[in-house]
Amino acid sequence: MIQINQLSKVFRTEEVETKALNDVSLTIKEGEFVTVMGPSGSGKSTLLNIVGLLDSASSGSYQLLGKEMVGIKERGRAKIRKQQIGFVFQNFNLIDELSVYDNIELPMIYNGVASSERSKRVQAMAERLGISHRLKHYPQQLSGGQQQRVAVARALINEPKIILADEPTGNLDSKNGNEVMELLTDLHAGGATILMVTHSDYDASFSQKTILMKDGMVMSEKQQTKNIDIVVNS
Questions:
Q1: What CATH number should be reported for the domain holding residue 215?
Q2: Which of 20, 125, 127, 156 is the least crowded, having the fewest Cβ atoms under 10 Å away?
């Protein structure tokens, strides 16, 4: 599903050149749950932004579903984001002035989905995530865990090929955080492909593979197979 080869990202100012990614190569197969970890400044968020087509690479190759993403124009990136990628952010990024129903529905409006179809999808997704009784509420009337469930519903509503989660439990207490991780695990069990950035070893334990980054490079990959960790050093 995702094939990255020798991907680099350089940020330049008049005085400083910073290499945020340095010849990164990795593969994420369809249906995998992969975590990226590393200290601040390791490049993990930059990598997630490039995979999510929120930023572009300076060099190298990034193929999504067999198509090269490096070099495509913003209009093309926006179309792929809407159709293929679902985002779950640490800060939820819900619109406070919209109800839960409207927040979940919004991506379908951007994609031109008919009103009757939007209504069916919102109801089905809310039922699936256990928030159907909250559809008329507003984000500030919900707990953190409920807000993140709404964010996940919004991310899934256009049936994306991949879910990108950026510190999805970062603003939650342990109880709500655990609920979100169990939700992501259920989605993965249902066939979803998930790429998650986290600082939490506990959250990473829910995934199949953990990629450790430092100084813009992949240092190791740890494959979890039936409670046995296999470490592959780069």
A1: 3.40.50.300
A2: 127
According to DSSP, residue 4 is labeled E
Going by C-alpha positions, the residue among 165, 166, 168, 190 that lies closest to residue 178 is 168
141 DSSP 8-state letter: G
What pLDDT does 234 receive? 52
Q: Which of 51, 43, 41 is nearest to 2 (CA)?
A: 51
Domain encompassing residue 7: 2-233
| Run of H or E including 104 | helix 100-110
Q: Nearest-CA neighbor of 34 among 187, 194, 168?
A: 194
Q: What is d(CA 44, CA 62) in angstroms, rounded to the nearest whole number?
A: 15
Render 42-95 in DSSP notation, one character per residue.
Answer: SSHHHHHHHHTTSS--SEEEEEETTEE-TT--HHHHHHHHHHHEEEEETT----
Q: Domain total for the chain?
A: 1
Name every residue whose Cβ is closer than 8 Å to that of residue 174 and which is 6 or more positions away in sequence. none
With 0-12 / 13-18 / 19 or more C-beta atoms within 10 angstroms meaning exposed / middle / buried, residue 217 is middle
- What are the tens digits of pLDDT across the range 120-172? 999 999 998 889 999 999 999 999 889 999 999 999 999 898 999 999 988 88
